[in-house]
Amino acid sequence: MNTNHAALAGRSLNTVSAEMDLCELLHAMRLSAAKVPESDVPDVLMQENTSCSTSDTLASSSSSLSSESTEPHGCAYLQAIRDQFDQYATVGGEYLEAIFTHREIFSSFPAAHHQCARAFSDLAYMLEQRAWRADRDADTEAVSAFRHEAWMIAATLPSASKQASTSNGFPSYVCMMPAM
User: Fold this and answer.
1) Residue range(s) defining the domain that contains residue 93
2) Which of 60, 126, 127, 169 has fewest C-beta within 10 Å?
3) Residues 46, 30: Cα–Cα separation, whole Å
4) Is residue 67 in some structural domain?
5) Considering the domain boundaries, does residue 84 fall inside one?
6) Is 65 domain-assigned?
7) Domains in the chain: how many in total?
């Protein structure tokens, strides 16, 4: 028991001496009030590594990507979010408010939202591609939430083949009552 006590006392002395050395080091340090210069450089989108791509492949993929990204998808609400995308901050949970607001709009008239799954996917992609800033700290969570909402909308809406199979021309989610 004496050997265990001596070993424990030796360890605590080593810990105390290390703490004393750290305190002396902190007292010896001098911190000057240096001001960090503010940068006037605008945010830049991240570029993909194109070292494996040929110039023809890169040109065709970028032209198809740019033509798809300029064409708006979704309802007017999601298009308005997309139009204000540069000012869209994610740290305050604005993306959750957008999802819940869209769910309310969607539940009132689902037929007007057949492209909203694509719009949410596009918003998620745009969030992934934009440069990081302090007010965009929750972009990764917003990307996951937007993708999940896109999957939920796609699963909720009837597919095009199901809509084409209805003989009376009405969507399958509408209940028609016969006249009396």
Assistant:
1) 73-160
2) 169
3) 38
4) no
5) yes
6) no
7) 1
For the chain, the distance separating the N- and C-terminal CA atoms, rounded to the nearest angstrom, is 97
Q: How confident is the model at residue 95 (pLDDT cuts 50, 70, 90)?
A: confident
- CB-CB contact of 45 with 131 (8 Å): yes
Structure tokens at 167: 């003989």
Residue type, 138: A
Q: Report the amino acid identity of residue 108.
A: S
What type of residue sits at position 46? Answer: M
Measured in degrees and rounded to the nearest 5, phi and psi for residue 57 equal -65, -40
Residue 85 half-sphere exposure, CB side, CA atoms within 13 Å? Answer: 21
What separation in angstroms does the CA of 19 have from each of 15, 16, 24? Answer: 6, 5, 9
Distance from C-alpha of 89 to C-alpha of 154, rounded to nearest angstrom: 26
- Which of the four pLDDT bands, split at 50, 70 and 90, describes residue 3? low
Q: What is the pTM of this model?
A: 0.50
